[in-house]
Amino acid sequence: MKSGSNLEKVLAAGHFSVTAECGPPRGADPDVVRKKAAFVKGNVDACNVTDNQTSVVRMSSLAGCMLIKEQGVEPLIQMVVRDRNRIALQSDLLGASALGVRNILCLSGDHQKFGDDPQAKNVFDIDSMQFIHLVRLMRDEGIFPSGKKLEGAPKFFIGCAVNPFADPFEIRVPRLKMKATAGADFVQTQCIYNMKKFKEYMELAKKEGLHEKVKILAGVTPLKSAGMGKFMRKMVAGMDIPEEVIARISAEPKEKQAAKGIEMCIEQIQELKEMEGISGVHVMAIEWEEKLAEIIGGAGLLPRPVVE
Amino acid sequence: MITGTPKPIEEILEMVEPYDNIILAGCHGCVTVCRVGGEKEVQVLASTLRLAREASGKTIKIREVSLERQCDPEYVEQMRPYVNDYQAVLSIACGAGIQFLAEKFTTTPLLPGINTGFLGVTERQGEWAERCQGCGDCVLHLTGGICPVTRCAKSLFHGPCGGSVQGICEVDKSIKCGWQLIIDRLKDLNQMDNYTKFKPFKGWSSARDGGPRRIIREDMI
Amino acid sequence: MLPCTGRIDESLLLKAFENGADGVMVVGCLEGDCHYVSGNIRARARVKRVYGILDTIKIGPDRIRMYNLSAGEGSKFAAYANEFVDRVRELGPSPINLVRSGQVHAVSQKEAT
Description:
heterotrimer; A: alpha/beta; TIM Barrel; eight-stranded parallel beta barrel; 12 helices; globular; B: alpha/beta; Rossmann fold; 2 domains; three-stranded antiparallel sheet; 9 helices; 7 strands; elongated
């Protein structure tokens, strides 16, 4: 075991794993996180806590991790390199590990232009690829990148994100391979709606043997409405939502669209479960955590396995 | 070249408001080429300021000068014989030139007449674009001659990020994704193996993060 | 004498105002008919820039205007000249000339903005 995290154990035991995410609040109220944790608890193997996603200021991901951990949910800390230089990143890694966070997702982070403070200085001292390398170095070699020895190496199950749908398509799999080589143990993908293209991506990844090197968790996001799908397609860079997906949810009357979105998400998870090379799903129910049990249970993935 | 944009007239008028006797100094270097601080711009700005000031009832005397370069001591020294006859110097050279004047003429207030931009190129008449951040550790041989530090909004070394859509950066539709450009170029050059190489952490100490930089060439001294 | 409006630059136009002009009329050849290919097009851009400057510093942008004429359009020239002079008369003396002649108090650039 590299980290001994629950997620790592579940995956190592060969189970189809489930992760979800909690976005910390735009304020200091811990109860918001606790409430979300209650919806997540028992339904996942680990729960991501986002790090100022879209550059919108929120409670820190480490604080969010501790709050859900207190509620009995295994945290998965997201860390972006946008706001922290290598000094702060190393320090936060040590802190998170010391507090018992065992899973990490290494991200570059959205550009600050999209958030509260577009005038902020961006850091990007190292990029997400180099960040993965940094965590692996500290964990496996027990050294800082400076070469100095650590007094106790941090223990992390190292994750990265990939977007199989971003441009240019031809470097998508080589990039995943680079991330795996840099030290990623698992990957969570961008929300998948275009299953055809994702299968194409997986075929290429399997040809490289990447599904054996790194655990691939397929990202899904239930649509709350046809409007949400249209909005995401238009506003989120690299979001590939095929017309037939929008058409299917649009065919429902407004009040039934949410239920349809959940139904579609469950179908999708079931399909992903049968795909070779997919080790789990990452369910991003954005501000809809209360539906997690319904979705994950509906896909036949409950109760979650307990692995010692 | 070093590029720049004129400061708004209102801002310059406010800066020169306390003075009635100034030097307006242009530069024949980069700022002449990018049409923001050369001899012509000196003439236009001087006329503009005189007109505005006279219309407001408080005339201003302006000595118009254009130095070969404001960033070289031999040219800056040309101002020394008369600089003390004036209350201030308004310079429309780049920030380096303005500071060099300030450094040489310690008792004269220096006022910036332009906002200095970046190290860039003329893409077409009237349009300039950034190409270099002077990071002090060039990697262009690995990236198809396109700088990831400058051309990627996140300065990624293993780009592009998920925000690259059909070659356009998510930050602004007018920005081409630097990494898409790099990949296209590497493919053309048959150098895609450079792309898949892991690039170690960049040393930023040779960039401005290491503090104000200095180049000493012993062989030239 | 200028050989072509293409020789005019912004500082020349501004100098005219400094020297006491209440208005400046720039008359170039018809567009597309420039002996030097694009002299009058360049002049138009420069006049436009000066228009902007005069507006910013409250001298009044309408004190400058560019007209295009062919050499054979004498009567049109006269009509344009009369039109422009009438317009400048309507605007009255430039603020510079008002200040110089002591007729009014100066316009404050600050208040005006």
